Amino acid sequence: MTKTKNFLVKLLKPFKFQFNGEGTEEEDLERIAAQEQKLFPFETLVSATKDFHSSNKLGEGGFGPVHKGKLDDGREIAVKNLSHSSNQGKKEFLNEVKLLARVQHRNVVKLLGYCVHDAEKLLVYEYVANESLDKLLFKSGRRDSLDWKQRNDIIVGIARGLLYLHEDSHVPIIHRDIKASNILLDNKWVPKIADFGMARLSPEDQTYVHTRVAGTNGYMAPEYVMHGHLSTKADVFSFGVLVLELISGQKNSTFNLDPDSQDLLEWAYKLYKKGRSLDIMDSILASSAVPDQVALCIQIGLLCTQSDPQLRPTMRRVVVMLSKRPAILEEPTRPGYPGTRYRRSRRATAASSSTAGTSSESSSRTFGSSTSATASTATFTSPRLYDPHGKRPMKG
Ligand SMILES: Nc1ncnc2c1ncn2[C@@H]1O[C@H](COP(=O)(O)OP(=O)(O)OP(=O)(O)O)[C@@H](O)[C@H]1O
Asked: Helix 291-304 and helix 264-273: axis angle, to 10°?
């Protein structure tokens, strides 16, 4: 056994790797070991980040700080430090290494490598110059830096990245935490899907996998929040929320523009039904918007956030809808939010006769309005648990 592999065996020993029967632990180790060249010496990262100097800090997520750095060969990097010794951080680390090591797409952030140094676990990514979408969209008057063309390109890019993850990558992957802060923008405003700590392999022979709920409030699909039913359609829902946020400049989880609507989705749906969907558009976009394109994107956003997961389009269909003006587009039904009841329509039943599983009516239990919340189990019997970063262990 090579030195590196020995090291990986030691590193992984405390964790039980079970990727849905996808491979044995040994095979997983082999695969990771095959990435040997991706191991960064700790000293390299210390020197690249100037000893993780605060002036290089890019931000801090649920599992630790992220620092900017520069390697000797000139490459700029972002180093995520999962130094907290919680099991959650370790799981995140291993999950991200395992899943991201295998994916490569223009719209998915590139994992350059990783490093383990005593209790510190570090992930090394390509540096993405314009940072995350939330900072532009929701913070301190920076929304005007994104005109309609840029926002439309971002929507298309995220859709392609998600399609790749769901259908075209080595293994089908459900991201589980699609949201504005997990979309990074490079110097040409190309969006990159980031943060694979909670991602799961998609079940190939089932409609959904039953799992513990973890995600961010405002983006999680109702069937996932309330029943733990996880499928690619949960990502489709989050994508739809993001589309409506990009168009309106409003954050779904803190929406308060209309006292009669409980969130951005309901507001957009009501206006759509009145034939006034363009009213949700961010006023900053007035001079750059192409109304037909905006209307199409709103309709797609509403189709993606429908309460019934089986009515939501696949990402492949979304990419097709975005790439040309479709002659006929389905009419969106009510959007979903935790607590929504949905009854399968005849159209849905006909369209989904080959699949099973998510037809049960959801409970009427509703969630609070904390910006980051997670429910502990699919059956929802535990008390609600709030986490400042909106995440909980990923294993179901
Ligand atoms: N590759 C990168 N290039 C540039 N900036 C990055 C990169 N990765 C992360 N960042 C910055 O670091 C911040 C923290 O990222 P991280 O993924 O740890 O957490 P988050 O997504 O903001 O929050 P959470 O962990 O709750 O999902 C991001 O908001 C982003 O601005």
From this structure: 120
Please give the Cα distance from 253 to 262 (Å, whole number): 10
* Phi, psi dihedral angles at 112 (to 5 degrees): -85, -30
Identify the residue whose C-alpha is closest to ligand 1 atom 20: 61
**260 in catalytic set:** no
Q: Which residues pair with 229 in a beta bridge?
A: 210
* Nearest ligand 1 atom, CA 390: 26
Q: What is the set of domains in the chain, with CATH numbers? A: 3-126 (3.30.200.20), 133-385 (1.10.510.10)
Alpha-helical (H) ranges within 212-368 are 222-227, 232-248, 264-273, 291-304, 315-323, 346-351
- Catalytic one among 177, 186, 263, 282? 177
Residues with CB under 6 A from ligand 1: 58-63, 66, 78, 80, 109, 125, 127-128, 131-132, 181-182, 184, 194-195, 389-390
* SS3 at position 314: coil
Considering Cα of 35, then 24, then 165, then 280, what sign does the dihedral take?
negative
CA distance 355 to 321: 23
The residue whose CA has the least distance to atom 24 of ligand 1 is 61
pLDDT value, residue 141 = 76
Task: Please state the rounded mean pLDDT for residues 44-73.
Answer: 93
Interface pTM, i.e. ipTM: 0.96
pLDDT at residue 145, rounded to an integer: 85
Write out pLDDT tens, residues 111-123: 898 898 887 889 8
Determine the residue of 100, 131, 186, 253 to mutate for testing ligand 1's pocket, defined as the one with the most ligand atoms within 8 A of the Cβ atom: 131
Take residue 369 and report the two structure tokens written for it.
């309005």
Higher pLDDT, 94 or 29: 94
**Dihedral angle at the C-alpha atoms of 276, 333, 293, 180, nearest 10 degrees?**
100
Name, in order, each residue with C-beta under 8 angstroms of 147's C-beta and a sequence gap of 6 or more.
285, 288
